[in-house]
Amino acid sequence: MDFSYTPEQEAFRAELRAFLERQHAELFGRQGLASNSVSFLDVTDDADWERLMEYHRRLYNAGYLALHWPKEYGGAGADPVTLAIYQDEVLRLGLPMYGANQVAIDRIGPTIILMGTEEQRRRYLPKMLTGEEIWSQGYSEPNAGSDLASLRTSAVIDGDHFVVNGQKVWTSVAHRSDFQCLLVRTDFNAPKHRGISYLLVDMHSPGITIRPLVQITGERGFNEVFYDNVRVPRKNLVGELNQGWQVSIATLMYERISGGARHPVERDLERLIEVTRRVEFGGMPAHRHPYVREKLAQFSIEARALRLARYRALTAMGKKAPGPESSFGKLLATEINLRLALFADELLGPYNGLAPDSIGAVDGGRWSQKLIGARALTIAAGSSEIQHNIIGERILGLPKD
Q1: Is 325 marked active-site?
Q2: CATH fold group of domain 7-100
Q3: What are the tens digits of pLDDT across the range 298-309?
């Protein structure tokens, strides 16, 4: 594989890098957001959210927001190399990949492009891009997480509407969203993977109640959402009635492609290497300790492998709708992210238990926050166990359990 770039591609990288560095400096500064991460999911502070929205608008106005979307729907129809350059530069600075509307730009929009009606594309895609309408994803339920097909939220047809009742949980950015893609059961007599439908729901509809879920990190990006006789127009059905599982899988595949590009593993590793130059381990400067050097070398190898998995997913996405290969990047990214956080905890010892604003906290308490948040990422968007099963069964051809 040839990893050299043409002069035109290098010019694009230089232009993009200058743009992103300017946005990072003007909007986020050295410390990022108040939540210690530049993430659309965990922005609790309203001022931080407005800065993220401004970043979204600037990405859109510069033509960078949805490079992977077809031109006819407001994207750039970019080739895989251009997309790889974009991802590399965004991850280098730890910025959000798609501004404030990540759920819409990386998964719901592409799903509507692939499986929605032309009316739905015209209605929803433009305002996803501008950020006028923020989206969330209504999938998980209290008793239907990894076993998503066991969902019980119902939708009954009443004339030209569906009437929705039930509950969703772990719904990222629901408290800021204007619309939601919602999985509902429309046939309780069908096998569990059938009888499911995929609706587009106005989150300002009567009967919707949103309650924040406070995480161990103190952030409030997750929510539980309750639906009490919520009326949804039948024209907001994506795909066929009772065939929503196929639509939902498309959304998940797009999400897992982005999952490999959502965590700035190489940037975090560089930052941890800098930390090893300032602390001791085993009675010597940490960066000189053989054990520390061995661990950092292994992380460097895995981070490079993750980048190559990202490139492979982008290449595949340019040829067809995403498939099970998207699980590789998601699995690698979240597992490396977790093990990096666990190693940082081992390296820093009791100092890693200090709160971010405590005297003696290393690197502003970043690594303690990362540690308590990293485990959840191996569960979100399909747990690591689910990704192993997908890879084993659908790619390697291994027998099912």
Answers
A1: no
A2: Butyryl-Coa Dehydrogenase, subunit A; domain 1 (1.10.540)
A3: 999 999 988 888
